[in-house]
Amino acid sequence: MGKYNFDEIVERRNTSCLKYDFGLKRKGRDDLLPLWVADMDFRLPDAVLDDIKERVDHGIFGYTDPDEKYFDAVKTWFRERHGFEPESDWITVEPGVVYSIAVAVKAFSEEGDSVLIQNPVYYPFAETIRLNKRKVVSNDLVYRDGHYEIDFDDFEKKIVDNQVKLFLLCSPHNPVGRVWTEKELTKIADICLKHNVYVFADEIHSDFVYRGFKHTSFITLGGKYKEKLILGTAPSKIFNLAGLQLANIIIPNKDTRDKFRFQNDASGYSQPNALGLVAARSVYTKGGEWLDELKEYLEGNLNFVRDYLKEKLPEIKLIEPEGTYLIWLDFSAVTDNHKELEDIIVNQAKLWLDPGIIFGRESALFERINIAAPRSIIKQALDQLYSALHK
Ligand SMILES: Cc1ncc(COP(=O)(O)O)c(C=O)c1O
Prior knowledge:
Blueprint: H1 18-21, H2 23-27, E1 33-34, H3 46-58, H4 68-82, E2 91-94, H5 97-108, E3 114-117, H6 124-131, E4 135-138, E5 142-144, E6 147-149, H7 152-162, E7 166-170, H8 182-194, E8 198-202, E9 229-233, H9 236-239, E10 247-250, H10 254-266, H11 274-286, H12 288-312, E11 317-319, E12 326-330, H13 338-348, E13 351-352, E14 354-355, E15 366-370, H14 375-389
Parallel strand pairs: 1-13, 3-4, 3-7, 7-8, 8-9
Antiparallel strand pairs: 2-10, 5-6, 9-10, 11-12, 12-15, 14-15
């Protein structure tokens, strides 16, 4: 038994919680068990909650800015966990990674230009590109034998044919769960360097990698690849801080940083959320032990899902994840119609998952489930799915 109890059910309903409180509004039902959006049903450790409470007790929430103590916490985290230490100057504190992707799209491309992604991928990538009147180009990941790979010839061809200006890398990859190897990342980096393509490396899931796999940060690949790099990081996924809106965008090159900051200023954003700063500094200095235990718990959840599917729902195929707490399931043996799949999930199993269609047309027969919840909730969800499919 560890120090933290991740089996504890914490009632999240009636907290304006996006995951639990908006079923009626968003899905037309208020009886769904939600395992969709990527946040977790776990409370933070007391040491972090105490830091936030202390700040709340001060009672004044005027404009705040990150100070050297804040930057030291961020730098130490990345030095100890990811093998690189950003300079304070390289870090821009932002309200989120998606917001920062929008800033990067505006900073590094013009209207009508092409921006590259790899479908199936976290859907705000394509949305952000489209809403900013750029063209979405996808180097679709290749799904073979239950595993996803990059077609590098297609990657380069898409860049050349469309004169791509910016590539949005998802590393580790949501939803397919790949933790890209150093070799794969270096191939990507070489092609982008050769064709002058900026890389936004979204590494928001980098702290959550399963045993046996290693996350390689794009920034550690080598000096020549840093010039056009924008590294998206945040404590929000791993420490469940999404509602406090804080991300650290790391840009080593001054010219790239200036371009990014110009667009950030043009969008009118300046000082970050006061409680977000306190929470981020606190988790980065005091949250390591909690995170390490949590990772073990989530590995247990993954094992539970794998065993359950094997034993009771062999028609659903688990895409073995290497990282992230988002599990990608192939339902193509259940139905060949994505609308029927949605009906099974929502109206019969009474679950709220992320349907594969939103990640790209090719993945219409997939579902993404979030396993960052107490195991009893995961079991309940699978039982509901079993009942729906074996009536
Ligand atoms: C790959 C990826 N990037 C960004 C985000 C969201 O980041 P933020 O809330 O900081 O915009 C998510 C959330 O699920 C994600 O999976």
